[in-house]
Write a structure and sequence with these properties.
By secondary structure, the protein is α+β, with helices and mostly antiparallel strands. It has 2 helices and 11 strands; from the N terminus they run αβββββββββββα. It is elongated. A hairpin with a 6-residue loop joins strand 7 and strand 8. It is 21% helix and 39% strand.
């Protein structure tokens, strides 16, 4: 009977880990938005490994003349006492004449968040079009880290000891 309970605990643990992984907040989302003459399309990158680079890709269709550029506008966290527009980082084009752009973003320490919007600016730095989540809030890139083995092993041990 003892072995059946242990086997049942292992199966339930694996099932719970699978369900948690599939339902976790932070899975990428697909967004399409039109602002004026520009259409934006992105598959969000919600998580990045701490102290590593991650790549954000966006597809922007529209008239790119007179020095128009696609930029990532890093903004302060919503509700933060810090005010201002943040700063801008330019996206790179995949190929000349392509509507696909990418940006290699450095991810900070574990649990840090980067809030950003994607904008098209003209040659003088004025915003022509802006792309964010449908509710107007910025996209979020979270920094995640590895769980230490002793913490994970202890957690699993305590799960099994409850049976």
């Amino acid at each position: 009977m003892k072995y059946i309970r242990i086997f049942g605990a292992v199966v339930l643990t694996i099932l719970m880990l699978y369900v948690a992984r599939r339902n976790s907040v932070g899975s990428s989302e697909h967004f399409v938005h039109t602002d004026g003459a520009y259409q934006f399309e992105i598959e969000t990158v919600p998580k990045g490994i701490e102290h590593a680079d991650t790549v954000i890709r966006v597809n922007v269709v529209g008239p790119f003349d007179n020095g128009h550029r696609v930029m990532m506008q890093v903004v302060p966290a919503p509700g933060s006492p810090v005010s201002g527009k943040g700063y801008m980082v330019p996206f790179m084009q995949m190929e000349r004449g392509s509507s696909e752009f990418y940006l290699r973003v450095p991810v900070g320490a574990k649990n840090e968040k980067t809030f950003y919007r994607i904008v098209v600016i003209d040659g003088s730095g004025g915003t022509i079009a802006q792309f964010s989540r449908p509710d107007g809030s910025p996209f979020v890139l979270r920094s995640i880290g590895h769980v230490p083995v002793p913490v994970l092993a202890g957690h699993i041990l305590f799960i099994f000891s409850t049976f």
